[in-house]
Design brief:
Cobalt-precorrin-4 Transmethylase, domain 1, Rossmann fold, four-stranded parallel beta sheet, 12 strands
Length: 306
């Protein structure tokens, strides 16, 4: 069997920033350091930070007053930030700057009097954070079919924003349908979706044309990892989402000579190496990496509390 690795894959700049934020907070302050929600959607990353003194909670009320609290890369709603202030928590905001950009877009549209549509998965932390940054009537949908069920106050005064980790193809179909039904709708260009999402999905499309099986290394609750698997499946390749090497099933590779591997934006490279080690025991003879877009984006760390 031969392995072909996608390029780019794994950590994006927003994830690196979020993890480094927790690491630096732990280095500067005595544990515990509280993190609201998983800092990124990867169990291995979270467990590693737990071992170093980070405590992950799902409710702001579970954090003792005056404690250090880090907001995850997915962002939080305004009322959560307000509750944190009321509890006198020392806030470090690790929200991805590109998610912050979506918040700003939504707020700007609202200030201009537009009714907002969020293209994304209801209940996802990023979507709930965006939804909570604006008031009034907000719609959340993720499929072309859902557009026809929309009931809006003024069809002439609509605007949309998007979750950063969606499938570009699916998002494009939703936007096309919105424009068809509401020709005056406002919204960012498709190219405004997260650069890391675009790059990884483009790499999978190229990879899918050269392999028999696609492995996406990522958490099952990671939106961008799930979308990568879907992109592979839509290209007609048997595609599997695995958290680590333990999820590999030898029967996937019985009739396979070419295996493609990529990883979600919150997946550390060490997990990919673990998958490669396991596949070596199954008969890998060659590992190559596709030429692809080299990412140089970096984000400055948020201001840490004293």
């Amino acid at each position: 069997m031969n392995i072909i690795l996608a390029q780019p894959r794994g950590f994006c700049a927003g994830v690196v920033r979020a993890i480094q934020t927790v690491e630096q907070a732990l280095a500067q302050h005595s544990p515990p350091i509280y993190v609201l929600h998983e800092i990124v959607h990867n169990r291995h990353v979270v467990e590693n930070l737990k071992q170093r003194g980070a405590l992950f909670v799902e409710n702001i009320q579970d954090i003792p007053s005056n404690s250090i609290c880090i907001f995850s890369a997915h962002g939080v709603a305004n009322h959560i930030a307000q509750q944190a202030k009321q509890r006198q928590l020392k806030i470090i905001d690790a929200t991805c700057p590109l998610v912050k950009k979506v918040h700003s877009q939504a707020q700007r549209y609202q200030q201009q009097g537009y009714e907002i549509i969020i293209i994304g998965h209801s209940g996802h932390p990023e979507v709930e954070g965006t939804r909570g940054c604006i008031s009034g009537n907000v719609h959340v949908l993720c499929t072309k079919e859902a557009v026809s069920t929309l009931t809006v106050q003024n069809p002439q005064k609509l605007a949309y924003v998007t979750q950063t980790t969606l499938s570009l193809d699916d998002t494009q179909e939703v936007i096309k349908e919105l424009i068809r039904l509401f020709p005056t709708i406002q919204g960012p260009a498709l190219t405004d979706i997260c650069y890391a999402t675009q790059n990884r999905q483009n790499a999978v499309r190229e990879l899918a044309s050269q392999v028999d099986v696609l492995l996406v290394v990522g958490a099952h609750n990671s939106s961008n990892s799930n979308r990568l698997r879907e992109v592979g499946a839509q290209a007609g390749v048997s595609s599997y989402l695995i958290e680590d090497a333990e999820d590999l099933q030898p029967h996937w590779f019985i009739k396979t000579t070419r295996i493609g591997i990529t990883a979600g934006a919150s997946t550390p490279e060490v997990l990919i190496e673990g998958v490669l080690d396991r596949l070596r025991t199954l008969g890998i003879t060659e590992i190559t990496t596709l030429p692809g877009k080299i990412e140089t984006t970096t984000f400055q760390l948020p201001i840490l509390v004293d």
